Amino acid sequence: MLELPRNDRFFDAKSLPRLLMTSLENDLDPGETHEATGELLAHLQRVGIRFIPQPNAESVESWQSRWQQTIVTPTEAGPPTQGTQPTPRPGSSTTAADPSTIAADVKTPPRAPQHRLQPVESFSVSDDPYPGKNLPIADRETELANLASVVAGCTKCDMLAKCRTQTVFGEGNSAARFAFLGEAPGADEDRLGRPFIGRAGQLLDKMVQACKLQREDIYLLNTVKCRPPENRNPEPTELDNCRSYYEQQLQILRPEYIVCLGAISAHSLLKTKLSVGRLRQQFHQYHESKVLVIYHPAYLLRNPEAKKAAWADLQLLMRDAGLA
After folding, report:
1. Residue 102 in contact with residue 210, Cβ under 8 Å?
2. Where is the composition biased (Low complexity) (predicted)?
3. Number of Cα atoms under 13 Å in the Cβ half of residue 123
4. What is the per-residue pLDDT across 253-302, written as a single tens digit (0 to 9) for each?
5. For the chain, which has fewer Cβ within 10 Å, the N-terminal or C-terminal residue?
6. Secondary structure letter of residue 271 according to DSSP
7. Under 8 Å between Cβ of 227 and 187
8. What is the mean pLDDT of residues 110-117?
9. What DSSP string describes 20-33?
C-alpha cells in the first residue's frame, strides 16, 4: 500500500467528474493528466483515505499500450526572423531576464517525457474587426476606468460577490501590443486588487522580461474578476457572467497579441475544450488579435520541467512580434 503524500492544495469535489472528463476529452495531455492525478490524490486524502493499492508494473504497461497516443517531438526553434525592433515606450526598460530562468536546462533530462501532442488547426473565434471605434489613448483609459467601476459593483455571481475582498479588474498599458489573459485572482490579488502579484505573478514578470518587455509595456487581466473560494477553478456560469467584461476590455485595448495563460482562459476565449498541449505553439485568432496559448505560471511552478515548453512558446511570440 502507498501512503498518500501531504498536499494542501484545495480541490473542489464537485469539480472531480468534470476534471477527469476534461482530461479524457483533451487526449490525455501528459502534463495536465499528471496535474489532474495529483489533485485527485489530494482530494482522496482530504476525505480520509490515507493509502491506495501498490501499482502493478505489468498492469501499468498494459494500460499504457492500450491508451498510447501518437505523439510527435517538438522541433527545435529555428533562427529568429528579421523584424523591426519596436520603439521603446517612454519610461520603459528593455532589460531582458535571463532566459535560463524560463527555459529548462537542456542538459538535464526531464522527470517525465515531454512529448507534445500533434497540434490542431488554429482557431478563429472571429475574423471581423473589433466592434466600435479605435479610441485614442486618453479615451481608452477613461473607458477602462468606467468599466472598472461597473465591475466593482457586480453581483452576478452571488457566492463570489459575498466572498471577495474586492474585484480585480486588470492593469497595464492602455496602448499595449500584448495582453496577458489569466484565469482568476488568487488570495494576494484579492487582498490588493491587482492581478498577478503572488508567486505566479513573479514568474510571469520574469517571462515578460525574457521577451525584452516590462510589466509596464503589457496589459494584465483575468477571465474572472473575483477570487473563487479557496482558489478553486471558476465555474462555467461564473466564466459566462464575466465574459462581457473581459471582452469589453479587449475591445477597448485592441491588442496585437493576446497570450492565454492556462487552459481556463484559452477555453473561455477560444470556446474550445482542447488542452494547452494541443493549442500551444501556434497562433489563433480573436478579431484582430493573434492569440497564443501557453502554460499558466502557477502550473510551471508546480511542474518546472514544463518551463522548456513555455520558453519555446515565448520564443515563437518574440519572433512573430519582431522582438527576437
Report:
1. yes
2. 74-86
3. 20
4. 999 999 999 999 999 999 999 999 999 999 999 999 999 999 999 999 99
5. N
6. T
7. yes
8. 48
9. HHHHHHTT--HHHH
Please give the domain boundaries of the chain with CATH numbers for all domains: 2-67 (no CATH), 126-321 (3.40.470.10)
> Rounded to 10 degrees, what is the CA torsion of 178, 182, 185, 188?
-60
Q: What is the mean pLDDT of the chain?
A: 80
Whether residue 80 has pLDDT greater than 70: no
Contact 273, 267 (CB under 8 A): yes
Q: Residue holding cell 522541433?
A: 75
CA–CA separation, 298 and 294 (whole Å): 12
Contact 80, 318 (CB under 8 A): yes
Q: How many CB atoms lie within 10 A of CB 243?
A: 14
What 3-state DSSP class applies to 48?
A: coil
pLDDT in tens, 201-215: 999 999 999 999 999
Q: Are 286 and 270 contacting, i.e. CB atoms less than 8 angstroms apart?
A: yes
Q: Are 54 and 299 within 8 A, CB to CB?
A: no
* C-alpha cell of residue 57: 508494473
| Selection from 199, 200, 134, 205 nearest residue 172 by Cα | 205
Cell of 82: 528579421
